[in-house]
Amino acid sequence: MRRRKLSGNSLMGGAILFATVSVVVTVAVSLHENLVKHIENQAVITLIMLAAILLLAGICTVIDYFRRKIMVETPTKRILDATDRIASGDFSVRLEITHAYHHYDEYDYIMENLNRMAAELSHTEMLHTDFISNVSHELKTPLAIIQNYATLMQDERLSQDLRRQYAETLVATSRRLTALISNILKLNKLENQEIKPDRERIRLDDMLAGTVLQYEELIDRKGLDLICDLDEVEIVSSPDYLEIVWNNLISNAIKFTDNGGRIGVSLKAEDGRAVVRVWDTGCGISRETGQRIFEKFYQGDTSHAGEGNGLGLALVRKVIDTIGGEISVESELGKGSTFTVILMLNQQ
Ligand SMILES: Nc1ncnc2c1ncn2[C@@H]1O[C@H](COP(=O)(O)OP(=O)(O)OP(=O)(O)O)[C@@H](O)[C@H]1O
Ligand SMILES: [Mg+2]
Asked: Which of 57, 67, 239, 321: CA 20 to 30 A from 73?
């Protein structure tokens, strides 16, 4: 939070009040002295003094009215109008601050905070709208495929072979749909901090070997060379969360490497940290793509766009942020990529 000092503007209100009271008292005192010198009748003096005090009080009230109008009511009204618009969902409102920064008063700070709040709200709203349109788009494609193939399968003259092929497509597409929905739910839970990472003592090398094993069939089918170099490393962390990370990195390495290529997983303990590298000799990532791969729904390589939704790495980044760690990527287009994950051996 920024430290603020009382500005000259806010002291000015007090100074005006002080000056007005001083002038009124001085005028009243000297008027009384003059009257005493020139008029003998006490009743007349009292009457004149009364009229003078009423007049001075009237002038003070007018001065104070304009002071309040300019320094309090106008900014309060502007702030109220802005909060009304924000409350009714208009986040485009921005208040113009007329004072220079070093002359800011409390109202200026409130206005500045209000502008920041409105900007933050419109950014969040934009993210939500983008997210919803991305989700709808990603749902539409598999649903259209399911509809098409289900319609084709209604034809009784269909050969057994084609029927089996269509059924396989249906199963694969509905799996993709399930994966998409499960990824969205996981991301949502992580973003809303609904799931707290549980902490267990884990043998990270066993965990990585177990995850790689799940992909054995796929690796064989693509004829990939698999190189595992896993040191024995024990870590205290959340197994459920870590599974998400390894699954996404390893499945990406397989997906983005052409048949006959090489992929690998290595694990080392360095300076109280576990360093996991998932690498491949696949298509690689360009510099521009590399800057966006952790964004939700971003897919750099369009030739594989049908095999995912671009949520994997967004989920990985969110998990790493939640459990505390670092992830980075090094890649060269056409040569391959290496994703490095660094975790503290004993996470807090
Ligand atoms: N090992 C890799 N080699 C080359 N490109 C990669 C690799 N890993 C990720 N990318 C690029 O980053 C993008 C985002 O990856 P991410 O895992 O988020 O999405 P996805 O794999 O396309 O879909 P999903 O993970 O939802 O199945 C990919 O579309 C691809 O362009
Ligand atoms: Mg992926």
From this structure: 57
